Amino acid sequence: KKAIFFSRIHKKKGLLELVKCWSKLDPDGWELNIYGPVSDKKYFALVRQEIKKKKIKIPIKLHNPIYDFENKKNIFLSSNLFILPSQSENFGMSILEALSIGIPVITTSSTPWNILNSINAGLVFSFSEENLTENLKKIFKMNISEIKRMGDNGRLFVEKNFDIKKLIHNYINFYKDIIE
């Protein structure tokens, strides 16, 4: 089973806390792949140091950032879980991308994705290392069909609420109402 962190490498994204929690849990049969451009080199050095000092069954893998759409899509398609324990996020496009492909999301209430809990498309919690650990435990106790069901719920939510034709229609109506 594969989990991905796919975001800019910066302190506010909660990557160091994710690495600590992951290492503490050392989930059997799961691998964590980290992708993203480094915007804070000192912070990235701390993350790398934390990864190196932990001896876990399946090592956490650091990858170069991916900008090519097809490569990114293939990475998402080969993953079972998307994790972004961000301390601050205005939208979280990568969360939407993960949901659109059918990948459940673990994120924080510091993102605008609280709805994921109510539609069973992921887990959203207040940012803390303890809360992240508890929510990872919940996912690791699930079987693959439960995780897939969460992903399917997310995909259906995106299809219903982010269809481009519907969005354009809503914008047109919005501006018509303003003009009239």
Structural account:
With 180 residues, the protein is α/β, with parallel strands linked by helices. It contains eight helices and six strands, in the order E-H-E-H-E-H-E-H-E-H-E-H-H-H. The chain has helices at 15-25, 41-53, 69-77, 93-101, 115-118, 129-141, 144-161, 164-179, and strands at residues 2-6, 31-35, 61-63, 81-84, 105-108, 122-125. A six-stranded parallel sheet has the order 3-2-1-4-5-6, sandwiched between helices. Helix 1 runs parallel beside helix 2 (41-53), helix 1 (15-25) crosses helix 6 and helix 4 crosses helix 7. It is globular. The termini are far apart.
Strand tally: 6
Which class best fits the helix and strand makeup? alpha/beta
Estimate the helix proportion, in percent. 40-55%
Largest sheet: 6 strands, parallel
If you compute it from the alpha carbons, what radius of gyration comes out, rounded to the nearest whole angstrom? 17 Å
Percent strand: 5-15%
Low-confidence stretches: none
Distance linking N and C termini: 54 Å
Give the integer mean of the pLDDT values: 95
The general outline is: globular
Order of helices and strands: EHEHEHEHEHEHHH
